[in-house]
Each structure stands twice: as structure tokens, then as C-alpha cells.
């Protein structure tokens, strides 16, 4: 039985993600720095959840319910929805890490949690790309933008993005699995139970698809669009150029800082099939880089929406309107008895109360 467990662990530790590198049989001296790194990653997960949930909820509330539907608000609404759903399932992952990579939630939640994470991770990145393309077309090709930038066309693009994200996140529903090992239930990628060649092939294909469509293509697209925007704006106004440059720099840098380590470690993970000398580096690096990637979902509302002067003005106006209405209701409620005694004055609060 022990030989069977050792063989099983050797099989899946070479093609699974961070939890599977965390071996309960490692020496205590080796575990101490890994435990520290995992607690740091756990703290980053919590920060992403605490900041991202209210930040994205605010964006969803205003862009989805308070403001007029436009192409721009639709982009930001779907970006916020992608990040919000992504972060909504984060407590499951936080619990997984906090319980020393023990998954007590069953195989279906293992599959569903991984699929939702992949789906919304890809959707978030793709919507960032769509926003950069939209800004580029608006400024560089205004005639084309005026002709084709409609709500109907934007809805078609949104459906396409969600379908593409679902397609790229779909393999998690098939390959994600659970296994019992050393009184731990692990949620891992079971690419194949018996054939290492198929395992290696599937791992390589899925990793490179994720890297190309979830990182390289969006990064290249955003970089080209924003560089063109900078050059175009510089020709118009130095002041506007400065504002645009700082915003664009923040967006691109946040994307680079959050996602580059994640994809570098994912690619580096492929070498584990040939060289196991970097196990400890991957044990520490993959959870930390994953947590850093998760942070991008809480930064998006700040970088893309909240730093916008127009959004700030509309946000303040909406909040002021809500407060004004709330105070008006309280005032009406608080003076109800007086209104009934003085109904002949036809106080507008009374009319509203009577309705």
C-alpha cells in the first residue's frame, strides 16, 4: 500500500500545480521557508478578496444599474463581473491553502472552482484587451468607431469573449480531480493516470495555450494600442499626453507585474518532467505568483475606472443623489405625524407617503 501511494504521488507531482509540490514527507528545515511563502500567498489572497469584492461590486452597481448603458459602461461592467465572480470563489482556495492543501469540498466543487477561476481569469484578461482596442479605435480611427461602435456590436463582442473564455477554461472541468494522500485530499490536474507521454503532451499544450492567449496576445495587443495612443496624444497636447501616459503606464505595469511571474512559473513547471532539482523553487514560486495574478482582479477597478476623472465625477454625483434621496425619505418619515395634523398645507412629503 505504501509503495502504491509513493508511485501515485510521483505520478501526479510532476504535472500538477502548487499544492501537489507540497510534500508532507519533506524535511522540517525545507518546509519552514515554504510554509512562510504559503502564508504570504494566503495573505495576498485575502487582500485580493477584501479589496476586490467591494471594488468590483461598486463598479457593477453603477455601470449596471445606475448609469446609462453605453459601450464603455458595458466593457467595464463585464470586466467587473468577471473579476467579481473570480474573487467570489476565492474563499475556497483560501481555505485550501489554510488547511495545508487539504480539499474537503468534494470532486465537483474541485472541478467547478477551477473552471470558474480559469473562466473568469481569461475573461478578465480578454476584456482588458477589448478595452485597449476600443480606446485605440476611438482615438486613431474615429470614423470607423462612429460607424461600428454600437451597443449591438459590443454585445456580440461580449458574448464572443465569454464563449472564448469558457472554451479555454473548459479543460479544468475534465482534468481536475481529487486524490487521497497522507490523510490529505488534493485537488489537482489529472492529465492521465497511466501514460506519462499523454500526461506530458496535455500539460504542454494547455500551458502554452494559457500563456499565448491569456498573456502574450493580450500583452502584445495592449502594448501596441497604448503606444499608438501615447504617440497620437503627444501630437495634440502635452498636458493630456502626461495624463494619458501615467494611466497607460500604470495599466501595462500592473498587467506585467501581476501576470508575468505566473506564466513564467507555469512554463518553468514544464521542465520538472526532465529535471527535479527546482522542486523547492516551484513549491514556493507557483503559489506566490498565483496570488500575485489574483491581485490583478482587485486592481482593475482602481486602474481602469476609479482613477478616471469622469468616473469620479459621476460616482460622486450618484452618491450625492443617493444620500439626498435617503435623507429626504428620513425627513418625510420623521415628520409624518406633523403632516397628518397639517394636511391642508399639502406638504409634498405627505403626498408621497399617501401614495
TrEMBL record:
It is a multi-pass membrane protein. CDD domains: 7tmA_GPR1. Coiled coil: none annotated. PROSITE patterns: G_PROTEIN_RECEP_F1_1, G_PROTEIN_RECEP_F1_2. One of its GO terms (cellular component) is plasma membrane. Signal peptide: none annotated. The keyword Transmembrane applies. Its main location: membrane. The keyword Membrane applies. Residues 55-304 form the G-protein coupled receptors family 1 profile domain. InterPro entries: CML2 (IPR002275), Formyl_rcpt-rel (IPR000826), GPCR_Rhodpsn (IPR000276), GPCR_Rhodpsn_7TM (IPR017452). Belongs to the G-protein coupled receptor 1 family. Belongs to the chemokine-like receptor (CMKLR) family. This is Chemerin-like receptor 2. The gene is GPR1.
Amino acid at each position: 500500500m505504501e509503495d502504491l501511494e509513493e508511485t501515485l504521488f510521483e505520478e501526479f507531482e510532476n504535472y500538477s500545480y502548487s499544492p501537489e509540490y507540497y510534500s508532507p514527507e519533506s524535511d522540517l528545515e525545507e518546509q519552514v521557508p515554504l510554509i512562510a511563502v504559503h502564508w504570504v500567498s494566503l495573505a495576498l489572497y485575502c487582500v485580493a478578496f477584501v479589496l476586490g469584492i467591494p471594488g468590483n461590486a461598486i463598479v457593477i452597481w453603477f455601470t449596471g444599474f445606475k448609469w446609462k448603458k453605453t459601450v464603455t459602461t458595458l466593457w467595464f461592467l463585464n470586466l467587473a463581473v468577471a473579476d467579481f465572480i473570480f474573487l467570489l470563489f476565492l474563499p475556497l482556495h483560501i481555505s485550501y491553502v489554510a488547511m495545508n492543501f487539504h480539499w474537503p469540498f468534494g470532486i465537483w466543487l474541485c472541478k467547478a472552482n477551477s473552471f470558474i477561476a480559469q473562466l473568469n481569469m481569461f475573461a478578465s484578461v480578454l476584456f482588458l484587451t477589448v478595452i485597449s482596442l476600443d480606446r485605440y479605435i476611438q482615438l486613431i480611427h474615429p470614423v470607423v468607431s462612429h460607424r461600428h461602435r454600437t451597443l449591438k456590436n459590443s454585445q456580440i463582442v461580449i458574448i464572443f469573449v465569454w464563449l472564448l473564455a469558457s472554451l479555454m477554461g473548459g479543460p479544468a472541468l475534465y482534468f481536475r480531480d481529487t486524490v487521497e494522500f497522507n490523510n490529505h485530499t488534493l485537488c489537482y490536474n489529472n492529465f492521465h493516470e497511466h501514460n506519462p507521454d499523454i500526461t506530458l503532451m496535455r500539460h504542454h499544450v494547455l500551458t502554452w495555450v494559457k500563456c499565448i492567449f491569456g498573456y502574450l496576445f493580450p500583452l502584445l495587443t495592449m502594448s501596441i494600442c497604448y503606444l499608438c495612443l501615447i504617440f497620437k496624444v503627444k501630437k495634440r497636447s502635452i498636458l493630456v499626453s502626461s495624463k494619458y501616459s501615467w494611466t497607460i503606464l500604470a495599466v501595462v505595469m500592473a498587467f506585467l507585474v501581476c501576470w508575468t511571474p505566473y506564466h513564467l512559473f507555469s512554463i518553468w513547471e514544464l521542465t520538472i518532467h526532465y529535471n527535479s532539482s527546482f522542486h523547492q523553487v516551484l513549491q514556493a514560486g507557483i503559489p506566490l505568483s498565483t496570488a500575485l495574478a489574483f491581485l490583478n482582479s482587485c486592481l482593475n477597478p482602481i486602474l481602469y475606472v476609479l482613477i478616471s476623472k469622469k468616473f469620479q465625477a459621476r460616482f460622486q454625483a450618484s452618491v450625492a443623489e443617493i444620500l439626498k434621496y435617503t435623507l429626504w425619505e428620513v425627513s418625510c418619515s420623521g415628520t409624518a405625524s406633523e403632516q397628518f395634523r397639517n394636511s391642508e398645507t399639502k406638504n409634498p412629503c405627505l403626498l408621497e407617503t399617501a401614495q
